[in-house]
Amino acid sequence: MQAYDFLVLGSGSAGLSFALEAAKFGSVCIVTKKNSAESNTNYAQGGIASVLDAADSFEKHVHDTLVAGAGMCDPEVVAEVVRRGPETIRKLIALGAEFTQKEGGLHLVREGGHSHHRIIHADDMTGREIERVLLENADSHPGITILEHHFAMELITEHHMGQKVTRYTENNQCYGAYVLNLQTSKVERILSKTTLLATGGAGQVYQHTTNPPIATGDGVAMAYRAKARVSNMEFIQFHPTSLYHPDANSFLISEAVRGHGAKLRNKAGEAFMAQYDKREELAPRDIVARAIDDQLKKRGDDFVYLDIRSAGKEDLQKNFPNIYKECLRHGMDMSQDLIPIVPAAHYMCGGVWTDIHGQTTIKGLFAAGEVACTGLHGANRLASNSLLEALVVADNAVLKAKEFAKNQEINAAVPEWDDSGTVNTEEWVLISHNHRELQQIMWDYVGIVRSNLRLERAFRRTRLLHEEVESFYQRTKVSEPLCQLRNMISVAYLIIRSAMNRKESRGLHYTTDYPHLNDKVEHHTIL
Ligand code: FAD
Ligand code: SIN
Questions:
Q1: Per-residue pLDDT tens over the stretch 417-466
Q2: Is 3.20.20.70 the CATH classification of the domain at 236-346?
Q3: Is the pTM of this model over 0.90?
Q4: What are the boundaries of each domain within the chain?
Q5: 3-class DSSP assignment, residue 211
Q6: Which of 99, 349, 371, 473 has CB 3.0 to 4.6 Å from 377, enough for a Cys bridge?
Q7: Which ligand number lies closest to the CA of residue 223?
Q8: Residues near ligand 2 with C-beta < 6 Å?
Q9: Where in 121-233 does DSSP place strands (E)?
Q10: Would you say domain 1-44+124-235+349-527 falls under CATH 3.50.50.60?
């Protein structure tokens, strides 16, 4: 029997930082579906927002976060996360993180929606540095077991103990997870006193995304099936500037490049942001993404340009070494060429509902990072607030998880996974086709600009996909692609239903049928 005090699903910033802290109080197992470093965290570019400049203040960072969140942030959560910024940065540095320095201190940059220079970064590869340092510490910790190539399939709850569970069941408790060992293709039962969901976001639900392939929304889908509360799923953030190139896979061109003075130009060479917002290129990213979308639709173009030719080659190579190199690999020198860009799905603001301690509505189940909806981001996330949130909430979650674990026994009565009646199949084209179809539906109908007609069409199409995949799932031995597709369809359903419920435009949710904010609309979408 595999049993631990703390089971952690996911090895990004949230999972690893929780594991390091929790290991002070008991045994920890981290389950991760690819190599440990493969995560959204690893690709984060811009940095972590924190108030570190004497001329900046917590009040200003709070204000900027609340403005971006369009009336839907929880002010107490915002105040707490912002206040914890400096100590979180110090903790990373103590673990060994090396951030970019200037004149003996940390170099702070500015991004869209921020009123001050407050982004701490490691060149343009901040996530790689954070992932490196957390992983090195976790790898060498004797109390932490890391299971790579293990795919978390289902949370174990009262449902598996034979009880009928609804979203209103008060004593629903999590006892661990059923996990598919991708090397043996066997489903393992991993039991735990507490479980942390840290499985990240769901960008892969869309055809164009800055997220790596791991971001298939598994955590939200598992939690929803386990009857946890899920909220605000309509708020999907589209990053305005991903590289438009057939081989670039929506590579992100960091917001920090606009912070460094880049202009957006349409194909005719006209700078257009002043028509949309007085903050121009430094407006929050929902405004910039919609402005680009508007230009593309009005002009019938496939992309717009990002122009940073005002900065010299040396400056760009120094400040954006990774982005510079990637553009060059695709034949573009940022100091001389205009860079073709388009918006792409980037961040899931909604997710599994939690409080500031990562507590979900299921006992013993915690969530932190992108999978969680804590109330920090509201209807739109301010750039570089998510890494900070992941680290702060993961830390907080340990406080409650260790208390909870103290009074729990491992539930050895949990049954083994039962796959009787299922067979191996050769029909993998059914999965790959449905996968592509889902991404296309979501991109075309549930993207930056929505309407009733588009959402209804998306709903009908995904319901059909759901029926097909559920029937396939019931008959077939489980596999990672099948489980991921099933999860992606669930997440798509949650996004569409939440978007249909919101009869107004707010933050990241914009619909042509209700183009204005409506204060009478109940604020949070709870599913
Ligand atoms: P992740 O880092 O995504 O980790 C999730 C983990 O869960 C992975 O290890 C994954 O393999 C694992 N996993 C998923 N499903 C399963 C499963 N079923 N079973 C087992 N394991 C599973 N935010 C900022 O604040 N600043 C930035 O500069 C920034 N830049 C970004 C740039 C890019 C290109 C992207 C994609 C995102 C960026 N973000 C940025 C957002 C930020 O990186 C993420 O929100 C954050 O890293 C999420 O951390 P996490 O620990 O919640 O999830
Ligand atoms: C970026 O570097 O533009 C990404 C920042 C973020 O998503 O917070």
A1: 998 888 887 778 889 999 999 999 999 999 999 999 999 999 999 999 99
A2: no
A3: yes
A4: 1-44+124-235+349-527, 236-346
A5: coil
A6: 349
A7: 1
A8: 45-46, 254-256, 383-384, 386
A9: 144-147, 150-156, 176-181, 186-197, 230-231
A10: yes
